[in-house]
Amino acid sequence: MTVIGTGAAVAVPAPARLGAVRTAGGRRLAWAEWGPEDGVPVLLCPGAGTSRRLGFGAGTVEELGVRLISVDRPGLGASDSVPGRTLTGWAEDVREFAARRGLEGLRGVGFSQGAPFALACAAAGVLTRVALVSGTDELAAPACEALLPDEVRYLVGRAAADPVAAERSFAGFGSPEGLYELIVMSSGERDRALLEQPAFAAAFQEALAEGFAQGPAGYARDTLLTMSRWPFDPADVRTPVDLWYGALDAAPTHSPDHGARLAARLPTARRRVVPEAGGMLLWTHAASVLGALLDA
Fold it and tell me: Among 149, 294, 221, 32, which residue's Cα sits nearest to residue 286?
């Protein structure tokens, strides 16, 4: 397992290629890519509020022959908004995106709030294998309720009782500066050390600023969807799923039991809890995550 230590500087690679496609309905889906153009295609569903530009695996994607592709979700970054969009709607966007770009055997990585979006693609049969890294669980599932911190349980309850008002409140709170401060404050010591590295912090904040370029509505919709019941049953997912969690991950909206209950609901899950690691596994353990994703 290739691991980057707490004190080591973590590089965030700039995209090798940028572009956009148009859906059949004329909407723009903006993308970024890293690694060889003829590599194994891997879709990245990024975390809360961040744009397509926040890559990972500097050097690793080239070594493993991975064509890493990140796509802005509607209303974030440079992708056109879709009022009332859903998790299943995102899966259909990815299906069309893959077809238009000729991506065969597409695999996926979902980080943090991006995990339910990646899992929705797996449930729809769009991905052949998926890794959920420090992923948000189905927070509104009854089995999660007793495990949630009080503030998260409150937000989940509000999303269920009045989703329109909840989405409006998420938009009122959302800003790149506020979200960065919240992520840092709610992180454990190991993750905070990475988030506050000058180069990493600059790249992360730039991705947040771009993610909020159209305003907070895209972030608010994402947050509502991840605070609500999923429109698919994990028990029906037949795509192989790797679950990755750090034992020192303190983020309150990630899985409250490091994916234990989610793994039990997924018939094809492989779960790993990495000792002495936090929630930023996507950057500290990139080679391990991608290596396992490529392992047939």
Answer: 294
Helices assigned H by DSSP within the chain: 60-64, 87-101, 115-123, 142-145, 150-161, 163-173, 176-185, 189-195, 198-211, 217-227, 260-265, 281-284, 286-294
With beta carbons less than 8 A apart as the criterion, state whether 259 and 143 touch. no
Distance of CA 109 to the CA centre of its chain: 7
Q: Which amino acid is at 155?
A: L
Q: What is the mean pLDDT of each run of 10 residues along the chain (296 residues)?
A: 56 94 97 97 97 95 97 98 96 98 97 98 98 97 93 96 96 90 93 94 96 97 98 96 97 94 96 96 96 89
Are 259 and 26 within 8 A, CB to CB?
no
- Joined tokens for residue 65: 């022959």
As a whole number of angstroms, the distance between CA 280 and CA 50 comes to 14
